[in-house]
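dumping the sequnces here before i forget
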Amino acid sequence: MARPPDFTANCPIPISTHDFVTLAHGGGGRMMHNLLERSVIPAFGNQPLESRHDGAVMPVAQGRLAFTTDSYVVHPLFFPGGDIGTIAVTGTVNDLAMCGARPLCLSAAFILEEGLPLATFDRVVASMAATAKAASVNIVTGDTKVVDRGKGDGMFVNTAGVGVIEHDLVIAPTQVRPGDAVLLSGDVGRHGVAIMAVREGLQFETTIETDCAPLAAPVLALLAAQVEVHCLRDLTRGGLATSLIEIAESSRLHVEIRERAIGVEENVCGACEILGLDPLYLANEGRFVAFVPAAQADKAVGILRSHPVSAGATCIGTVGDVQDKMVTLESRIGTRRILDMHSGEQLPRIC
Amino acid sequence: MKYVDEYRDQVQAERLAQAIARITTRPWSIMEMCGGQTHSIVKYGIDELLPTQISLLHGPGCPVCVTPLEMVDKALQIAARPEVIFCSFGDMLRVPGSGGDLFSVKAMGGDVRIVYSPLDALKLARENPLRQVVFFAVGFETTAPANAMAVFQAHTQKIPNFTVLVSHVLVPPAIAALLDAPDNRTQGFLAAGHVCTVMGFEEYFRLADRYHVPIVVTGFEPLDILQGILLCVRQLEAGHAEVENQYARSVQREGNRPAQALMEKVFRVVSRKWRGVGEIPRSGYCLRDEFSAYDAELRFGVADYHIDEDSECISGLVLRGVKRPHECPAFGGRCTPERPLGATMVSGEGTCAAYYRYRRRQNDPRAPQS
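..and the predicted 3d for all of it:
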């Protein structure tokens, strides 16, 4: 009897080593497991994450908790001075800091578009890890989903964060008082111009980098030095003007600022002149305003200036006692005008 | 910043304002022609520095504002077509047509893109040979050279899928139309510095003579505008009607000759409708016949579309300096930058939007006197 032919497997084994994201990476199976083991867990490395549980379990801190979340959909994913990962960490850390909290830990949820190069994902994860380390927080839990090609913009990131408030101050727009000094932590508009330049292929003499930075350290320093902080707000979309208008409306008070005291880097200023944009409305990712009693303004500015991320801090104005919920600006030529909230994103003017 | 800060100097501004106050003996109405100047005046509160006898009228020099409703509608119709990539400067996207704006077309799936130059649109046409790329060529003489260049390059490089929707208007015929109007209040003009950078100011001598009005070619920074007003008032007080050039650092009498030659090659002068003003004879450009292959109106069959303007909006009176935004019953209520009734509320250069942004409260002591 003839020997049967050798058994050969002719059923193809699925490829499991793509160098781009496939729907299988979000399917809850081996590929997703590999993605997390290969990239996310080593990068973020911390005990709660490494326990591979459904959620992170941590001891309860003394004091009050602050809790916040934000989603990041920035395009392009990479830009001078940062990427979607850097702002996904700093944005949430900064929101906690603006509550007067010490950021403790973050979650990170990724929505990946099919076809995204894994190298891109790894690069974003690495910068999230580096930024988290710089901001002294751990990323302790997370999630990954994959959507069909064309249904996402490469990747979206959501982070949520928990922080602990270790003092008794209430920091909120409602605490703003007439006479308060308005402090600004540095020059404005860099993030907005940096993103616009990459997005639109605009070239300037020097590369304008985002100001993206974690802000918890200077805030905690103010609190540690017993500065009676009334309100904090990080300047993100809508810029300095929109943040101040929101605070004036919530506090029902009048905020008066001086254009001359507000720093705008020369290349940002040039870009705004060319495009017809107002730097006061441009996005920032590493700047904040602080409302403090006038008597403590100098001390607070001194503390802020001792931290690299707020080395350019200045006092830009004061809170008046008129209850008109408005912000006015003393212009460079000494006249005054109302700052109003724009209805949407600033649009470059025709001429 | 160099070339900017020195024109925003408080001490110099006060000095110029004092000089204006010293020579002003009677009330004068001066119109700044350009939307960029209006923006600067309202942003810096330049009129606060002036003696009360001087009133500034804000002219029809915002390209977004004067683009007629039917042209916006044509843009919406073309942009909604599936084969079209519709390119525009940013501030045209929110201009209301009779059925929505370009943002709504985009939200409903139209491929509408903001570009910074018509040459960017031409590049898109080269990169997307299977799509029709249309550029919304809006503006005064300032933007016309770049638009002419885009059409000229499309022609020489034989790019068949590029067209322009032309809505170009010209300043001198608008000045003549304003001065011919029976309700005209304007006694002197600040001509638009950037328009004159391209066109020079030869044409203005005829206007100054014929209507006996001073015309001062003026820049856009606070000190430029104050100096322009000073020169204008000095002429008005002396009974002169001359053309002067305040903006000599940018403007020469003959203008930019190569730019003019290119415009002349690509465009010809036609009558144009101005939103809120109506038709002004010989007040705009259209493509010459040899470039008609690049005319979006012809390619997409919208040339014969006509529609009347909204009757509630007084933007026409605002554009002609006859009324101020505060005098409109809809201002700040039914008409805001979020829900504009007319184009002067849309663009940052539009008079109504500028007033809304910087002087919302009617009882604001800094609101201009009407």
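The interface with chain B takes residues 200, 202, 266, 269-270, 273, 275-276, 331-338, 340, 342-344, 347-351 of chain A (CB under 8 Å).
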